[in-house]
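Exercise: predict the fold of this chain.
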Amino acid sequence: MSFGLNGKFIGDPLRFLERNLIVNSALEPYIAQRDFVIRQEFTFVKHRIERRKAKAAFVVDDGQSPARKFGVVELNRYCRDDNPNAVIRRRRRSHPLQATYLGYNPRGVATVHLDDGSDFMFNHSLTGCTLAIANDEQGASVMHISDALPEERKTEYINEFFGHRHVYLFQEEEYGIAEITHVVGVNTEEEGWRFFAQGYDTAAAYRATHSYADPPRNADYVCYFSVKEIAV
């Protein structure tokens, strides 16, 4: 069912992100807002809209340069006995993604300490929220902070969770060109955990933002950045 997508991602995550846009529509909002941290096996499938493969275009300079075609894949969970919401069943030759999924708490924060129990991390999409990341000799820790929180409460949560560690705040000012942004964490042998962002618009959002102009190549999604590394 993964069509070899999992194996390609595991083999070269950065190359995969350069060629594919990941959407989390199978996990958001119901599962991700109920289970703030999920650790299990995930899988990619080709994202479809009305039974056809979804299309995306990658643009630079806000659409002034020629667009190139882009694949669209959907992140989902493998079905388990205690997981009735998943729809994907693992096949014998599948390459499951051992991953952590960091959800979204609309009234507060969702947090996770990453270790070698997971190879990858995915997070609930950002549409104004902040992702706080610390990555040092103590390991990598991530906090998804709701934009609805008052600034003083955000600071309190950060201090309580991270203590005196250096914290990088990935905020809307850095990804605001995109309507939807998510972050992928990759646990590498050489450099430990690295984090990359993908930011995109739906076709409808692109038309509204660009005075109702059609998306490049009549795409369903327009991707502004696919491998934006977060310099933690």
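Check your answer against the key: Residues 81-86 have pLDDT under 50 and may be disordered.
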